[in-house]
Amino acid sequence: MRLTPISVLVPTLNEEIHLVRCLESVAGWASQILVVDSFSQDRTREIALRFGAHFVQHRFEGYARQKNWALDNLDIANDWILILDADERLSRELRDEITAMLRSKPTAAGFYLNRRFIFYGKWIRYCGWYPSWNLRLFRHSLGRYEAREVDEHLVLNGRAEYCHHDLIHEDLRGLEAWIDKHNRYSSYETRSLPVAPQGGKERQLKARLFGSQCERKRFIKDRIWPYLPGRSVIFFTYLYFVRLGFLDGERGFVFCLMHAIFEEFKVVKRWELKYQRQCSQDLNGLNSEKESPSTGPGSELRSVG
User: Fold this and answer.
1) What CATH number belongs to 4-172?
2) Domain boundaries of the chain, sorted by first residue
3) For 23-53, what is each residue's pLDDT tens digit?
4) Strands 54-57 and 80-83, how do they pair?
5) 233-246 per-position pLDDT tens digit
6) Which residues are within 8 A (CB) of 184 and not within 5 positions of it... i.e. 6 or more apart?
7) pTM given for the model
8) Which residues are CB-neighbours of 92 under 8 A, at least 6 positions away?
9) Percent of the chain that is helix, strand, coil (3-state, to 5)
10) Which of 9, 89, 143, 297 is most buried, by CB atoms within 10 Å?
């Protein structure tokens, strides 16, 4: 079998439960596999080496920074790079399509992949989760991730095409891990503010109402959505009724409800963050008053003497 001239990049941290299926889907197809690990304590390294991956460890500094570090520092053998999470895998149809698209679209700078989300064994067809276009395949020299803690986008210098077969996403961990992950994400999003790129080749996605689809989403998410009242109720209504989540049955209801709950987490964490900042300002003001010179009776005499 002739290998496709693609480098596959997989960031990992304790991913032995997922990594076999991920690497099986690209081994023998991609000409290079790179696993960038954040010092896993399980069999992640062993599995990566078994599939012939180049395994390197780097301290985790954030999702975007980890990927940008790999893009800037690793010996990437190909012009094209595909970034996969460890709980994702390529369908056979998508592999064949990518191989064909690289030949038939020589001027493209990247390709969007349509992610199929599997939730406890069921494909979530509705709930606003499908189609779910992700820019994952691109020319190495033309793309870097914007500097954000979470919800980072790849900023591509060029035109992107679309692949039509599915990238499969299936998290095999239990409910506790799912809740922990979304709890952490809600904290990241609460702290996340638009920031300027910080070195390297990082670029920043602009929040524009009349820009690209990603720029419009960023505008709504940063400038409008955080200030709406009753966001969790709005979000559940949107996912379950407007985006037809009820057609996904019981799992669709649970999926929409849990995402609405995590949306409320972000609301409360935003309150908490404001409260903590106010308390910090009040404490700093109190300390400043204690440290200032006395302004009571006799202070003039002390200052002169």
Assistant:
1) 3.90.550.10
2) 4-172, 184-192+199-286
3) 999 999 999 999 999 999 999 999 999 999 9
4) unpaired
5) 999 999 999 999 99
6) none
7) 0.85
8) none
9) 45, 20, 35
10) 143
